[in-house]
Specification:
This protein is α/β, with parallel strands linked by helices and about 500 residues long. Helix content is about 30%, strand content about 20%. Helix 7 packs antiparallel against helix 13. It is globular, with a radius of gyration of 22 Å.
């Protein structure tokens, strides 16, 4: 998801091998991954800081169509600035006071947010400050900043890999362009904005042999392994239903297109931000952050959160794309996702996976403990596996899973150390960049997951209608009009 600020934050971090020796005594330059970050919004900037801290990474470039601004959503007052200072370490406690938050914004009645910095220039400044501290002079000028990812891919000859953190509608075009340049790609979730794009991304990854991963950890976390073992061992019998619910959306959905046309902010390339999506006048309602709710740019709350949980669910249950999907929603709008929805995906064995958002939740099972009851309380998210002989209830990502009724034959799930910050997707991807095995969440394994997720998003456009899906033919067989959204054409010069 990328808004003006987020796309601007979709910077590319690229470091030539000649500069990798900034930290003497650590990883040898020849063993480092030179990296560029594309899309320097909140997510792009925050994850880029995590990547900076990894000794096997050398960031050399950032890219965003926004030069700089302080209107990006952040989860806590000055959260990005605090993370930047922690990343830089001792002596930087007062770094970049000019990047401090200008205040708060009320996006919806339910979501008040602090505003933070983003864009290619703040990102470049942060990268150079980080690497500069290791030099005797305290200065470093080895990070380039670009407004156009195409220029970055042409000019950064020593680049090994890119991290793509733009809005959803840009994920596939940028990832495919990078893979065709033989660059390894780490892509933010959801993997793509359209089902056809997911197929192409998987095909190009297979053809080029580069290392790829989507930033989802669920397939690799210990909780998913425990749930899979319980199910395989017959703890709840055959799984008939799975229910997954989220408190999203936090951003505006169920709204109409704005009628006024304010000027484009200085330093922001609106045409580049829109890119392959249909053309429209600039308006701050689209970005940053709020682009998630617009059909042309994002995938709504389902795309924002479902990609996390579905990645785990598909691996645990060994799922393939569904055979049908149908949705019930709140009031429909022509260009935005609904405020609330219930989506049912049915698979070839009859198992049904149900998604709830906007405050909706599944029926509460009888016989829950007081602790389990809290999973269904206000503000809580969760997942519920319904088997022929029992239930598995857990947090949204399957965290803290428990068997209902309890069963002494099966060991309880181990409690994860709250200090554990392992990022399986990123660590596996970096290892693969150096010749290791494919990450669990690579583009080929995540293409079917993305297909199911985006079918759910498609059903939200057509509430009340059951869509029959032929995955082999990449076609909705029950509604010809629905196929217009399977692989829509790109705008103008962005044609594939």
């Amino acid at each position: 998801m990328i808004t003006r600020r987020e796309f601007a934050g979709a910077g590319l971090f690229i470091l030539p091998r000649a500069t990798v020796g900034a930290f003497a005594g650590q990883v040898a330059p020849s063993d480092r991954v030179t990296l560029a970050a594309i899309g320097m919004g909140r997510q792009g900037t925050a994850i880029s800081m995590d990547l900076l801290l990894k000794p096997q990474v050398q960031m050399v470039a950032v890219c965003d169509c926004n030069r700089a601004s302080k209107d990006y959503v952040e989860y806590g007052k000055n959260a990005l600035l605090k993370q930047a200072r922690e990343t830089l370490g001792t002596g930087f406690e007062g770094w970049a006071e000019d990047l401090a938050s200008p205040g708060d914004a009320l996006l919806t009645q339910q979501f008040k947010t602090s505003l933070g910095f983003g864009g290619r220039e703040p990102a470049k400044r942060l990268v150079e400050a980080y690497y500069g501290q290791a030099k005797r002079s305290g200065n470093y000028r080895g990070c380039n900043a670009y407004a156009d990812f195409r220029e970055l891919l042409e000019k950064e000859s020593g680049l090994d890999a890119v991290y793509v953190a733009t809005p959803d509608h840009w994920h596939a075009p940028i990832s495919i362009a990078a893979m065709r340049k033989k660059k390894h790609v780490l892509c933010q979730k959801p993997m793509t904005h359209a089902i056809g794009e997911a197929r192409r991304m998987a095909a190009v990854a297979r053809e080029t042999g580069v290392a790829t991963s989507v930033t989802v950890n669920n397939p690799s976390i210990p909780e998913s392994k425990t749930i899979a073992e319980w199910i395989a061992g017959g703890a709840i019998g055959r799984v008939r239903e799975v229910h997954n619910w989220s408190t999203r959306p936090f951003w505006p959905q169920g709204v109409a297109r704005p009628k006024d046309t304010p000027p484009v902010p200085e330093g922001f390339d609106w045409n580049m931000w829109v890119g392959p999506a249909p053309e429209r006048p600039y308006h701050p309602s689209y970005q940053p952050f709020s682009w998630r709710g617009w059909l042309d740019f994002g995938c709504g709350s389902f795309g924002d959160m479902g990609c996390y949980s579905f990645a785990g669910l598909f691996k645990i249950l060994n799922l393939t794309p569904p055979v049908s999907v149908e949705a019930t929603t709140s009031e429909s709008f022509a260009e935005t996702y609904p405020k609330a929805s219930l989506v049912h995906l049915t698979f070839k064995d009859g198992m049904r996976l149900s998604w709830y958002d906007g405050g909706l939740k599944p029926p509460r099972p009888a016989g829950l403990s007081e602790a389990d009851e809290r999973q269904f309380s206000r503000g809580q998210e969760g997942v519920l596996y319904v088997g022929e002989k029992g239930l598995i209830l857990g947090g949204f990502n399957g965290d803290n899973p428990r068997l209902i009724p309890s069963n002494e034959r099966f060991a309880p799930a181990p409690r994860r150390d709250p200090r554990d910050r392992t990022d399986h997707a990123i660590d596996q991807w970096l290892a693969a960049c150096k010749g290791g095995p494919k990450p669990v969440a690579n583009f080929e394994t995540q293409a079917p997951v993305t297909e199911a997720l985006l079918l759910g998003c498609l059903s939200q456009r057509m509430p009340g209608e059951k869509l029959l899906w032929d995955s082999a033919a990449l076609k909705v067989t029950s509604n010809a009009a629905a196929n217009n959204y399977i692989d829509p054409p790109y705008r103008g010069d962005w044609a594939r």
